[in-house]
């Protein structure tokens, strides 16, 4: 039953992706509005949020919709006690719209009322609007095993490409924020990566696109806690936990600097957290450096 609802949510995301993509060209301008995180919203952010709210709340078995771009949780017109909640970053990396660089959509499907920790996730997915539109999903397949699968989205349908597994030999790294805003410990750690490893820098300013490189080539993506903002930038419910669910399903690891992002307690809907996602040994190294 839960698995069926999760599948329907993934289907709706796949069906909506080409439509969202097609609606982007005319919506690259900033509006006068700001979201709960204090960021100026683009016309595209607001439009994709409205579209996804309507679509997901119409799914049988989905009772609630929450998003980075709206203050409060929206409920379906008719709800049941065991309904699932969908939490969405409608456009991740939307500042890339101006320069025409890749962006994405992220979602988590939670079985508990929001805010809930990543341990309540029963599914997560992201769409990458790159040269082609791809969808990566993660959900339980049997007996507690969660699998990540990649699809190509064509004509609103998803065609399976295969299981996603991080390569054993990592090759890329990328960290967000300004270097001067990083803590001394984190600066030292990154200098070590630059000078003592063979990893190549890959950073594009959209978490989805950067994590997709990590899923493909192995490595690490992170947005650390900053000197003036120890909680970092990315949001736990809409970005950190869903991506952690996916990367852990693909054989990688996640961390807020101390523990798996799935174990971070969720106290508020728009809560931020430092985010590290990638190959297990590289995530372990960050935890050691920040300890
Ligand atoms: O420009 P910065 O500070 O490096 O931040 C980039 C990060 O912020 C984000 O754009 C935040 O996501 P939104 O675009 O959904 O607000 C991430 O995708 C990206 O990793
Ligand atoms: Mg985002
Ligand atoms: Mg966003």
Describe the overall structure.
It catalyses: beta-D-fructose 1,6-bisphosphate + H2O = beta-D-fructose 6-phosphate + phosphate. Pfam families: FBPase, FBPase_C. It is found in: Cytoplasm. The protein has 291 residues and is of the alpha+beta class. It folds into two domains: 2-163, Fructose-1,6-Bisphosphatase, subunit A, domain 1 (Fructose-1,6-Bisphosphatase, Chain A, domain 1, 2-Layer Sandwich), CATH 3.30.540.10; 172-290, D-Maltodextrin-Binding Protein, domain 2. 31% of the residues lie in helices and 30% in strands. It is built from seven helices and 15 strands. It has helices at 2-23, 43-57, 96-99, 184-196, 207-217, 236-249, 280-290, and strands at 30-34, 40-42, 62-67, 74-75, 84-92, 103-110, 121-129, 133-142, 145-154, 157-163, 172-175, 200-201, 219-223, 253-255, 275-278. The strands form three sheets. It has an eight-stranded mixed β-sheet, with helices on both faces. Helix 1 (2-23) runs antiparallel to helix 2. The model has no long low-confidence stretch (mean pLDDT 97). Bound molecules: 1,6-di-O-phosphono-beta-D-fructofuranose and magnesium ion (2 copies). Residues 45, 68, 89, 91-92, 94 line the site of one magnesium ion (MG).
């Amino acid at each position: 039953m839960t698995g069926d609802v999760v599948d329907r949510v993934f289907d709706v995301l796949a069906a909506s992706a080409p439509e969202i993509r097609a609606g982007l060209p005319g919506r690259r301008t900033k509006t006068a509005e700001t979201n709960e995180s204090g960021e100026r919203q683009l016309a595209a952010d607001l439009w994709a949020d409205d579209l996804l709210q309507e679509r997901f709340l119409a799914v049988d078995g989905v009772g609630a919709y929450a998003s980075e771009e709206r203050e409060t949780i929206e409920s379906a017109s008719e709800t049941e006690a065991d309904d699932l909640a969908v939490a969405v970053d409608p456009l991740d990396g939307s500042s890339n719209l101006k320069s025409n660089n890749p962006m994405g959509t992220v979602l988590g499907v939670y079985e508990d009322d929001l805010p809930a920790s990543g341990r309540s996730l029963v599914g997560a997915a992201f769409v990458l609007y790159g040269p082609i539109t791809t969808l990566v999903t993660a959900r339980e397949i049997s007996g507690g095993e969660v699998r990540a699968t990649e699809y190509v989205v064509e004509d609103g349908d998803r065609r399976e490409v295969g299981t996603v597994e991080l390569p054993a030999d990592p090759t890329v790294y990328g960290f967000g924020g300004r270097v001067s805003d990083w803590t001394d410990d984190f600066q030292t750690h990154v200098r070590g990566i630059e000078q003592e490893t063979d990893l190549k820098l890959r950073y594009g300013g959209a978490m989805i696109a950067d994590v997709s490189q990590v899923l493909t080539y192995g490595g690490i993506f992170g947005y650390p806690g900053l000197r003036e903002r120890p909680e970092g930038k990315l949001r736990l419910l809409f970005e950190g936990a869903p991506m952690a669910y996916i990367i852990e399903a693909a054989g990688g690891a996640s961390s807020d600097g101390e523990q798996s992002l799935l174990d971070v307690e969720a106290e508020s809907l728009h809560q931020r957290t430092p985010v590290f996602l990638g190959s297990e040994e590289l995530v372990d190294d960050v935890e050691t450096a920040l300890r």
